[in-house]
Amino acid sequence: MEVSGRRTVEDDNISQGLICRPCQEDNVIQQAHGYCINCKEYLCETCYKYHRLPKPSKDHVLVDGNIDEYQSEKELDQAPPSVPERKNVYDTKCRIHQNEDLKYRCRAHNTIVCSVCALKQHKECKNVDYIPEICDSESRLLVEKIEYVEGKVEYILKQDREALQLAEESYESALSALKTQRCQINRYFEETEKQISDKMLSFREKSKKREEETLGIDQKLKAKKMLLAAATPSSEIENYISISKTEDEVNNINAKLQGVFGRARLTISYNPHQPLQVLGEAIVEQQEGDVGTRKLKLLRKVNIAGGKAHCGIIDVTMLPNNRVLLILVDRINSRLIIISKEYNVSFHQVPSEPWGVTYISDTKIAVSFVECEQVQIIKVITVKDTISLKNRKSFKVLGKPLGIRYRKSDCSLLIAFNNSQRYTLEYWSLDGNYLRTVASCEYSINFITLTADEKILYSSAEKHLVCLLEPDGKVLKSFQYADDDSMCGPYGIASDAFENIYVCGQMRLRVVSKEGKWEQILAQEDGFAPMSILSCDKTKILFVCQAKRYEDVLVFQI
Fold first, then answer.
1. Are residues 480 and 341 in the same domain?
2. Are residues 494 and 357 in the same domain?
3. Do 398 and 429 meet the contact criterion of CB atoms below 8 Å apart?
4. What is the pLDDT of residues 131-143, one digit of tens each?
């Protein structure tokens, strides 16, 4: 008998060949546990359990147990349809308000909701976006993220190939050195063996010759002895004369034999070093990666909020011989923040949105303003305990000026520009005259700095790139950098006297050595967001300015 609700049958009657339709739409295969008469769909145990909870399906008739038998009793048009393979189908209706379409995305809760939910449950949330308005931009961002990951894959493959090539080259070099030394060793043993062999051969020949001479003398003595025994002289006189001659001959032979006893001897030996001396050393260095980790000593935190909810420090400069320690650019609040050497903080509003700042002398700075396309030369005045900014001199530039740095060598300003989607690095005089362009590219140049020898460093958050250039714009080296979690950055950059390059990224601060090795010097668990950075070689101090919602300048001992 059918009732509005569940109909229980013995569990061993559950069908073995039917599949849950809702789960299959999510690419999950689940064995059917029951069947909904109204939806004409098979349901797994979980879907069956919760199917009547939503209002639209609370009155549906559910059947469990022997659903094969139940199916055979129905008309063909009432039988549950077969479940064909289908592409991903996404439910665009709100689960709570079944008749409402999903139209809004709440970034705070990372969820998609309908207009009713947005009004009731997410009214206080910030960053609630209307999906039709952001869909295209989100799609473009996703494409850019995919392209970035593809670029990262290419970069990793390039690194792997370069590492393999380096290993092959070092292997061939080591084998060549080893073979060279082996040849030298073999030559040493061959020459030594030949030397002692030649000595032995010469001694052997001389010894044989001496032996033949000695045997010849022996034969003569025996012959003389036999003649004496067999001689029958006619008279004693003749016999005596014969004896005298023979004696003379024996004396001569004896004289010759005297030289035999004093001849040189030959002794040959070879004494190998025990243990054998080390001829060389095979050194095999293997690195699993070039990212190390090192902690820095935090000396202090300097709060720079000044009553503002957020402040974003885009750039920072230092006046070494002034009571001013740091001048910071707060782009969000259109102000300059001054930190004295006693770590007192003061705030100075500026008329437009600043981006870059650089010192010119102990009492002058230059500030770039993006929106009004200006550069201002500002005098820093310290009177008693107050610091003020006066005597401002402005000049217009061609384009939106971003980063700015002062070159001591020719008293010029290096400025990064955004000119209608094209970015350039240009030299300008302090009087506001354009001098020349040293670099131009289609991707963004966000932050710049100069090294101790006035080489140019710039970062591109768009390409996740840091480049080192000669003053004339020639590229010396470049490397890719990105925060592995959010794929943001790099932002601010700095260098020190040892040619280390400090790179700011989202929740990351890393340093690249002169040899190109990465080192992560502060990790994410330290809870900070580096945006701009300044290194003081004289005091070995690193100043790290953070992105908005972090309101402290961090002072580290390098």
1. yes
2. yes
3. no
4. 998 888 888 888 8
Q: Which pTM value belongs to this model? A: 0.52
Going by C-alpha positions, the residue among 327, 371, 330 that lies closest to residue 345 is 327
CATH of the domain at 367: 2.120.10.30
| Residue partners of 381: CB distance under 8 A and separation at least 6 | 363, 387, 388, 389, 390
Residue 457 pLDDT greater than 60, yes or no: yes
- Strand-pairing partners, residue 289, are none
With residue 256 as reference, give the H or E element that holds it.
Answer: helix 236-261
Q: What is the DSSP string of 285-335?
A: ---S-S-EE---EEEEEEE--TT-S---EEEEEE-TTSSEEEEEEETTTTE
* Tens-digit pLDDT profile for residues 523-537: 555 567 888 899 888
Residue 397 inside a domain? The answer is: yes
Query: Considering just the CA atoms, what is the radius of gyration of the chain in Å?
Result: 48
pLDDT digits (tens, 9 = 90+) for 339-394: 988 888 888 888 888 999 999 988 889 999 988 889 999 888 876 656 777 778 88
What is the residue-wise DSSP string for 106-150?
ETTTTEEEEHHHHHHTSTT-S-EEEHHHHHHHHHHHHHHHHHHHH
**Residues near 155 by beta carbon (within 8 Å), at least 6 away in sequence:** 480
* 328/454 same-domain check: yes
What is the number of domains present in the chain? 3
Cβ atoms within 10 Å of 547's Cβ, excluding its own: 21
**Same domain? 38 vs 172:** no
> Final residue of a domain: which of 43, 63, 78?
78
Query: Which range of residues forms the domain containing residue 159?
Result: 150-227+236-256
- Nearest-angstrom CA–CA distance, 409 and 191: 64
Q: Which of 535, 531, 525, 523 is nearest to 550 (CA)?
A: 531
Q: Are residues 222 and 331 in the same domain?
A: no
The pLDDT tens digits for 273-312 are: 766 666 777 666 655 555 556 677 888 888 888 777 678 8
Picking from 461, 491, 506, the residue at the C-terminal end of a domain is: 506
Alpha helices in 32-114, H assignment, sequence order: 45-50, 67-72
Token readout for 523 is: 């990790």
